[in-house]
UniProtKB/TrEMBL annotation:
Belongs to the binding-protein-dependent transport system permease family. CysTW subfamily. This is Putative spermidine/putrescine transport system permease protein. The lineage of its organism: Bacteria, Pseudomonadati, Pseudomonadota, Alphaproteobacteria, Hyphomicrobiales. SUPFAM superfamilies: MetI-like (SSF161098). The chain crosses the membrane at residues 26-50, 86-108, 115-137, 157-177, 215-236, 271-293. Gene3D superfamilies: MetI-like. It is found in: Cell membrane. PROSITE patterns: ABC_TM1 (PS50928). Residues 78-292 form the ABC transmembrane type-1 domain. GO terms for cellular component: plasma membrane. It is a multi-pass membrane protein. Keywords: Cell membrane, Membrane, Transmembrane, Transmembrane helix, Transport. The keyword Protein biosynthesis does not apply. One of its GO terms (biological process) is transmembrane transport.
Length: 302
């Protein structure tokens, strides 16, 4: 019997460059714009502000800017931003998880999921002045929802203590983009729950509540915590929405930074660089923990 002919060897076309890291094919040209973008608009600005944080207006190196971060107004700004970000991220993570469960595993009609995902993709990027105007027109003192609740149902939101231009008002405003973002980033984790796990739990005698408490939730916990950190970072850097709603009266860190960089009274760019450096450190810690938790979640779902 004649031996089967072996398939011809695949011809590999060498790339245009060779060097220490091996052949570099033409495919690398496709990612060069991404690396150039990151270098120009992420790495270079961060290095510039780090350098400025350790300099005074005369260009001399000093630690005075970092020491000034301990001043009461800046500490209060960081405290306010962290508390606001934690609250909006916590509510957004819990409510978004429940929403994702209802949309994906709740037995709703098939058209509900793509409709929610499409809306979430738009709403998660809807912020700034348009979002502030939308909430003022809806939940302001003369907003549509405020007037309808007062005149039709006899519920006076502002009479019971609600105020759109307060801490909790801002937290509610943040939820408009936090909830959709949570739905988008937790959906792959919920989709990753394998049917075999539920079947195995049922065979061993577990009911629905035991399955979620002992199997599904432990598997989802790293993903939920990672999403919480991502929501925290998303809220911590928000400026335009807060500024459009409250002006400079609500001194979160981005507004204090803006005042130092562009203000006419509190103009101190180097102190602004130091504040930005502090924000970068907080965001770096948050995103690093998110990546660690995401890697852990991916190992569980493989």
């Amino acid at each position: 019997m004649a031996e089967a002919a072996s398939p011809p060897e695949r011809t590999v076309i060498p790339g245009p460059f060779t060097g220490l890291f091996g052949r570099i094919g033409w495919a690398w040209l496709g990612v060069l714009p991404f690396f150039a973008f990151c270098l120009m608009f992420l790495v270079a600005p961060v290095l510039y502000l780090v350098k400025g944080a350790f300099q005074n207006p005369a260009g001399e190196y000093t630690l005075d800017n970092l020491l000034a971060l301990a001043s009461p107004n800046i500490v209060a700004a960081f405290s306010l931003s962290i508390r606001l970000s934690l609250v909006s991220a916590g509510i957004g993570a819990i409510a978004g998880l429940l929403l994702a469960y209802a949309v994906i595993l709740g037995g709703l009609p098939r058209w509900v999921r793509p409709a929610f995902m499409t809306f979430s993709g738009v709403a998660s990027n809807f912020a700034g002045i348009p979002l502030a105007f939308a909430f003022i027109a809806t939940l302001g003192r003369l907003g549509l929802a405020t007037v309808v609740l007062r005149d039709v149902f006899g519920i006076n939101l502002y009479g019971v203590g609600f105020n759109l231009f307060s801490f909790w008002g801002l937290a509610v405003t943040y939820l408009y983009f936090q909830l959709p973002l949570m739905l988008l980033i937790i959906t792959p984790a919920i989709d990753g729950l394998k049917g075999e796990w539920r079947e195995a739990a049922e065979i061993l005698g577990a009911n629905r509540r035991q399955y979620w408490r002992m199997v599904a939730l432990p598997v989802l916990t790293p993903s939920v915590l990672g999403c919480f950190l991502l929501l925290f970072a998303n809220a911590f850097g928000t400026l335009a929405t807060v500024y459009a709603l409250t002006g400079s009266r609500f001194a979160v860190v981005p507004i204090v930074l803006f005042q130092q960089i562009q203000g006419n009274v509190l103009y101190n760019p180097n102190l602004g660089y130091a504040i930005a450096f502090g924000m970068v450190l907080i965001m770096a810690v948050s995103n690093t923990l998110y990546l660690v938790l995401r890697a852990r979640a991916e190992r569980w779902q493989k």
